[in-house]
Amino acid sequence: MKKSLDAVFYPTSIAIAGASPGKSGQWFLDSIRTAGFMGTIYAVNPKGTEVSGLVAYKSIRDIPGPVDFVICCIPAPAVPQLIKDCATKGVRTISMYTSGFSEIGTEEGRRLEREIVRLAKAANIRIVGPNCLGVYSPKIGLTFASDFPRRVGKVALMGQSGGNTSYLLRASSQRGVRFSKAVSYGNAADINETELLEYFGQDAETEIIAAYIEGVRAGDRFHRVLADVSARKPVLILKGGYTKAGGEIAASHTGSLAGSAEIWDSLMRQTGAIRVCSLEEMVDLLVTFALMPLPKGRNVGVFGAGGGASVLATDELTLCGFKVPRLPEGLVKELMGRFGNTAGMIFKNPIDLSMVGYSEGFYDVVKRLMTYKKGDWFDFGLIHAGFGQAAWFTSSAFDQETAQFRDFVHRIHRETDKPLALVLQFLITNWDWLRALELQRGCSDAGMPVYHSMGSAARAIDRYIAYHEGLKKPVKCA
Amino acid sequence: MKKSLDAVFYPTSIAIAGASPGKSGQWFLDSIRTAGFMGTIYAVNPKGTEVSGLVAYKSIRDIPGPVDFVICCIPAPAVPQLIKDCATKGVRTISMYTSGFSEIGTEEGRRLEREIVRLAKAANIRIVGPNCLGVYSPKIGLTFASDFPRRVGKVALMGQSGGNTSYLLRASSQRGVRFSKAVSYGNAADINETELLEYFGQDAETEIIAAYIEGVRAGDRFHRVLADVSARKPVLILKGGYTKAGGEIAASHTGSLAGSAEIWDSLMRQTGAIRVCSLEEMVDLLVTFALMPLPKGRNVGVFGAGGGASVLATDELTLCGFKVPRLPEGLVKELMGRFGNTAGMIFKNPIDLSMVGYSEGFYDVVKRLMTYKKGDWFDFGLIHAGFGQAAWFTSSAFDQETAQFRDFVHRIHRETDKPLALVLQFLITNWDWLRALELQRGCSDAGMPVYHSMGSAARAIDRYIAYHEGLKKPVKCA
Questions:
Q1: Which residues, 6 or more positions from A471, have their beta carbon under 8 angstroms from its beta carbon?
Q2: A477 at the B interface (CB within 8 A)?
Q3: B153 and B205 both lie in a single domain
Q4: I need a surface site. Which of B141, B156, B418, B432 has the fewest CB within 10 A?
Q5: What is the tens place of the pLDDT at every residue in B408-455?
């Protein structure tokens, strides 16, 4: 198993079947070339038409060199012949973008899917899909979208939907998460959820596993593997088709048998896997699991501007099981000495620095608090900035201060030995997003977790700590 | 009461005390002038320095004409003298931005607050605040930020935090909500939550009431008024300082006595007010209550591109109590006849139009389904578009199609008699936000509710329907 999946994630030469100008095959071709795939790339189309400046072959068999990986973008009825050609050529893996198999719900679709699996098995070829986007393996520059990151990380992602997998890759990588490998595996006709999970469980490059799963084929085996892998690595699972109605759509989407919510609940409870309720939550959890050093406890220091924001942050953190402990008396006195009992500032915890803004004084105070050594009054820090709250954020001053703020946060992050996260919240206009994403980029690149609301930060960090505490809290979605 | 609050929301002449160049008073002055306040505006500062091109008076008493509304931006110790001057001048309302009263937690702060209330009462002057941003009354161009909308609507908003109130105004108005009036009322030393609620309850221009409240002064009276007003208009309340720790910060923020979570829970349960858990949720609920005609039932038609998005949408809607009923047989046949059993499309419900994109074919299909008359197979429609999911959204084609898509949605919205909402989701990059907000603007202006995730749409519409069904579902935050 391991060997054949190694071949899936580390091919040395790729042919794209159906790489005709203007078709999906060209899109895959361009993506791989843009990503700088380290092996050889061949284009194949029935007329041998040049595509993206590349000579195309009329058949896989016409390719002069060896080919171990084929991306299949030709119509479903032509796939059996392609597999036969691949067998002749010694291909190890076919990643099948082609759809029109079991998911369309016809007898012919199911028959065709059985046939391609049979043909591939006989030739010792592994199929990814069909009806999927295939493989992302940043170590060798293999991808299915040119905007996925090229840097390698420690998260492995398997997703039964191309769109959902793409979103998870894009959204979490924009927030600093990097991947060891990822796969959009569609109908799972050959390589399925259990095999991928087992492989990622053994993979030395993978420390965290994320999955979007619509159906499970061999329930008992999946249960055993999930329990085994979850005992060693966090496995985060978003189940698509959790409800009966959703399961019916999953059947039309990937031909999956979704199983009942009760079975799924008990599976998650028994194996120690981490239940995720939405794609957005998955991104928040990946950011946390991948980037945040584990806080030693649940005491949090909260720093930012805004009295109302400080009140709500305290509520939201408290409701998620955190403590927002009072500032030690020594620090209160120190801050009072510096600023006076200034109207519009709060020196408890949260520290509300409204009158200071995110200036040099902000850096001084937060750094002082994050590095205060007398007693461990908190275990990790949260800096928040609310864009749509303050007129200040819409002033030109903020434009000048964005870079300065980012530098402050970086310096504090480097100079403290406690975990530090950033909440860029209350984002409304495109102006807000432009600046928030600019700040986020700098902080994510430096390895800081960034969130877009206090509530989502609190929930994600709670789940993270609870996982490491071995607490199995019941998770109820919606 | 009504008369004195009418004077708060409809003054005819305003003086800004502390309108010195570069200070907060200038900022209030500029905001009101930019918003086109319909009455007279006077600047006051101790040196009589010209500000924003306006002659300034050294004292309120020096102003030649009548003044009925004063925005107070001078330091706290100088406020008693200002009130005396205002009494001489016949001022009706002082909106007090000045902070440094009960919220700083000192005896002197509390004493000063009591004194200004006593002075104002004696002179028949009403105080908004102190420690607040004051009044937004779009009908007459009174505002505390120049970017709030000038068009009048049916939502009244009262908020005990200037930042939170500003965010709610900005975020919900960007999504099409318009306000009859709003007030940031800070420490509530004089005009408080109960009086405002009663006034909004009687206000013919207000149909929906939203409140961010940190503390309640006269609990019994508030209870009675809330029950009375909630029986006639939806009252949405976000309680800041719901937790004990949050309540302590509320005390430092607005000098509020927050009360216990148990008391608050029972108050909300008994009065029929609508409990809101976060600012973000408040915006989603305001968008829904203000813009969405009440669906006749819980059957929803879901239209968009993306198989995985369709599966998750079905789950999220089902978990919130909606039905995503199968497409009637007649429509399935009609669509099959048009498109064939095309791989990559799903003709159940959700309708997954991946292969059509958001083109003319999309318009045809959605319009056909939204206006299908044989049997009421659904009660309202949701169109979703997932920006970070599909490579298509990052292609230049989408740039050209954005305007077309917006026009399609407008046309469908006009041509159907069923409620229709839009979910612009999976937004990642600034590119995504730029285009999504452009789409949103067009649709919000046309009166369509727009959401940023399927989950938040499902939760908000569920709360809306449940409110009108008279269902009192228990709401648990976090």
A1: none
A2: yes
A3: yes
A4: B141
A5: 999 999 999 999 999 999 999 998 899 899 999 999 999 999 999 999
